Amino acid sequence: MLVLLASAGIALLVSLLGTPLFVRVFARIGWGQFIRDDGPQSHHVKRGTPTMGGLIFIVATLLGYFGGKLLGQDVPTLPALMILLLMVGMGAVGFVDDFLKISNQRSLGLGGWAKVAGQVVVSVLFGVLVITLPYGSAGRTLVDPVISGVRDIPWLDLAPLGAFGGILFVLWILIMNVSASNAVNVTDGLDGLATGAVILSTIGYAFIAFWQFNQSCFAGGAAEENAYRCYSVLEPLDIATLAATIVGALIGFLWWNTSPAQIFMGDVGSLSLGGALAGFAIMTDTHLLLLLIAGLPIIVTGSVIVQRAYFKATGGKRVFLMTPLHHHFELRGWEEVTIVVRFWILAGLFVAAGVGLFYFEWSIHRP
Question: Required co-factor (predicted)?
């Protein structure tokens, strides 16, 4: 618990105190936001606002996690390091995309297929590692090739399929990661919107991981008698520590990212956060629960899909005035702050529903 608090505290201070320094440096070297001409007209005043702020909370997360470990004389664990790998790897893809946007002064950086290719490489690397790297004296892998809901779903165990099952599981991880990262990326359209939503989602995973630690199958020999209700997740306390660290880093960043934002997270931030959420879902064996924990980004992304499908099917008609969904409400006359706060409330309700479902599943299995 000391490591958890120390890591979150360090990340918060680094992000809160370091962001103004990054803002000045980014402004000086010209890392400013490029605004699309076809976006809401009210956004044009944001042109030139420093971007790529995701670098700040990635650095804050790394310093917080490893700093807390150093203070607590604790050793980093492989499950948490794998989530960091996914977070940093996706952030690297976003960094290249952002840098090309700034260099070319246009709203598009990496081409569509090039961006997806980068996400695929990171996702496949992560997927292969988590199902092949042995961990502990028993030699078990970090995760089993089983698709999970609130916990592993027995009839979706891909292990009996051998190598083909492993390929299918890596493909599933790829879908999860690309979907989550792009969903957060689409949600990052208003000051503080994505930051606040991901804070709430990550708090949900901190709770889930900490609960799994308290109900671990490996703590006190519960595996034999209560295997049907304990959790066999590896290092859940350290996963909770990493989640708390990311929350601390994002709270410090939100201080400067809230309206009127002094810095934007950019793709380096949104893709890294989506990767982190997917990583938490994978390492806590709550794959499908991500649909609720990240409910707001999924709905926002769904609005884009619905709009495009309806537009093509009807020959030009629209469901929304503009997508993503938050732009629809902007054109309806809602103030930006009003949209952000109300969307945060929706995000909180989704997280509460996800955590509630997680707890409900455990409670009905109590003896």
Answer: Mg(2+)
